[in-house]
Amino acid sequence: MSKFQELGLNEVLLSAVTDMGFETPSEVQEKAIPVLLEEDTDLVALAQTGTGKTAAFGFPLIQRIEADSRTTQALILSPTRELCLQITNELKNYSKYVKGLNVVAIYGGASISEQAKQVKRGAQIVVATPGRMQDMINRSMVNINKIEYCVLDEADEMLNMGFYEDITSILSHTPDEKNTWLFSATMPKEVATIAKKFMHAPTEITVGTKNSGSANVRHEYYLVNGRDRYLALKRLADANPDIFSVVFCRTKRDTQNVAEKLIEDGYNAAALHGDLSQNQRDMVMKAFRTRQIQMLVATDVAARGIDVDDITHVINYQLPDEIETYNHRSGRTGRAGKSGISIVILPKSELRRIKSIERIIKKEFVAKSVPTGIEICEIQLYHLASKIKNTEINEEIDHYLPAINDVLRDLDREELIKKMVSVEFSRFFNYYKKAKDLNVASGRDREDRSGNIPDNGDVRYFINVGERDGYDWKTLKDFLKEVMELGRDDVYRVDVKESFSFFNTDAAHTEAILEMFKNFKLDGRYINVEISSNPGGGGRRRNRGDRNNRRGDRGFSFEGKRKGNKSKKEHRKGNSFGGSRKKSKRRS
User: Fold this and answer.
1) Contact 417/389 with Cβ under 8 angstroms?
2) What distances in angstroms separate CA 301 from CA 161, 243, 261, 325, one per listed residue?
């Protein structure tokens, strides 16, 4: 018996579950499905975005619907067109073996008369955005006075977007005896008001803690001067070559400005805000989903309902006005069991807000330093080496090898490697060699991921495994602790890239770690651990003496001020070293 069968789903739905490859129900599905199948009850379900809420209400709804009747029996309200279409498509997949069941999406930006015709032809389930549904009710194009089920999905997001009056008006046209199922990531007072006004003794289920953030999301903040915010954003992108992120700004104007700067500087970026037409919005979202865009700069309202997997970072270029909104932002990453990172870039004047957010999400932030030039160059160098190693050879190159060998015949192996890597490495080196330190000191000590305040006796290591090997910062940390038999807090600042990673321990463990990994094999492959040439890894702020000592060891300086526009032009000129760059200037 499958785990979904144990929840009470019938054979028709179990066939769809098998086709979609679902194996184990998520926590919200495990808690909600049996309740909704067995009881005629109202329900309030609190669960973070990306936890499988659509299936949690979708499967019970389909099983309860009478497909033989053409009457509209269920209404699902969702905040955005994107989410509306996504829910509709998922319900169609769930009900693929249910004969006669029709699901119709109602949303703005499409023909209202055509949508009305689809409903009249027989739609047992209608999925709608509040604005378009209210419009159709006002025009008498849809009848929902006989529905038996009403689902409010992402209720807090709908209310944050100003749909309170629309929702209350829509619900007033529905029968009192219906079942109302409310799904929300948080429970602000507006959601509680809706529940109190339109629901009768609802069953409540909670996945995690109310208003808490996902356990798979690491929260970090970087303290900079306000004028250096954009420079910090670029450095964080450069320090994460495979970044796939949403960058949040407060206003449409800031969103457009930041996106344009990123595009100008050679990044795969685009803006998403309310001034875009629906066609422009669709094009941007399509490019983002296919990863043609790696940095999507968005306002909170425009980003509502974005459901894209594998987002590696959420970057708060500016903190939202409402603390609750931070929870929605960070919920865009760390989904479907994967880990993610939520970053805040902020001036010292806003530092107190971090404590306020921590109280709401019940998670601690890690205070980190904006990477220095040398740190970025090291990361990009390893990234390039891995990229070369993992590149599939195009056999057509054989036709050109004799001529190429002739050109390169005077170079030995080591010199050839140096020259090949320098072609790309020099781009970052030239840009960052005089880049200033962007970090601002704070009264709050910079802590490691476990909450311990690091001293100057820690060591940074390089290890030749990364995301390509199935690791993220959580699983790699667990692996290192187990292999080296270290305590929970002994491994910290674990930064995972595509095919390599960095981590820190106290210096006291160095000898044992290097000995352990001297001839260490995992699945027949040698795992190499070396002391990183960058001792700090951006996890703490060093004093000037530390920086001067490191500068002397390196033989060059990354301190000092950037000169005019020259560096910017050098940086922009075809800089494709990192995965977050593009070679052409064409906008996505």
Assistant:
1) no
2) 6, 23, 22, 10
Instruction: Say whether domain 3-206 belongs to CATH 3.40.50.1820.
Output: no
pTM strictly above 0.85: no
Return the minimum-mean-pLDDT range out of 48-57, 302-311, 346-355, 495-504: 302-311
% of residues, the chain, pLDDT over 90: 39
Residue 512's CB: how many other CB atoms inside 10 A? 13
Spatial contact of 39 and 111, defined as CB atoms under 8 Å apart: no
**Sheet of 458-463, strand order:** 492-496, 501-506, 458-463, 529-531
Which residues make up the CATH 3.40.50.300 domain(s) of the chain?
3-206, 217-371
Q: Which CATH class is domain 458-540?
A: alpha beta
List Cβ neighbours of 410 (8 Å cut-off, separation of 6 or more): none
Tokens of 116: 């009305």
Give the mean pLDDT of the chain: 82
Q: Which helix (H) or strand (E) holds 182?
A: strand 179-184
User: Who contacts 553 (Cβ-Cβ below 8 Å, separation ≥6)?
Assistant: none
Q: What is the pLDDT of residue 60?
A: 95
| DSSP H/E element including 417 | helix 413-432
Contacts of 172 (CB under 8 A, 6+ apart): none
Q: How far apart are CA 89 and CA 127, in angstroms?
A: 10
pLDDT band (50, 70, 90) for residue 211:
low
Tell me, what's the pLDDT at 305?
Answer: 61
Q: Which CATH architecture has domain 217-371?
A: 3-Layer(aba) Sandwich (3.40)
| Closest by CA position to 137, among listed 124, 149, 128, 148 | 128
The closest alpha carbon to 206, from 221, 178, 227, 186, belongs to 186
Task: Burial-class residue 91 by CB neighbours within 10 Å (0-12, 13-18, 19+).
Answer: buried
Q: Letter for the amino acid at 117?
A: K
Residue 195 phi, psi (nearest 5): -60, -45
Query: Which residue from 340, 45, 55 is spatially nearest to 210, judged by alpha carbons?
Result: 45
Q: Is 410 helix (H, G, I), strand (E, B) or coil?
A: coil
Instruction: Please list the residue range(s) of the chain that carry CATH number 3.30.70.330.
Output: 458-540
Answer whether 124's CB lies under 8 Å from 160's CB: no
pLDDT in tens, 554-574: 333 333 333 344 344 334 333
Measured over the CA atoms of residue 279, residue 281, residue 282 and residue 283, the dihedral's sign is positive
Q: Facing residues of 184 across strands?
A: 46
Helix ranges, 267-331 (H): 278-289, 300-303, 323-330
Q: Sign (positive/negative) of CA torsion 150, 53, 18, 10? A: negative
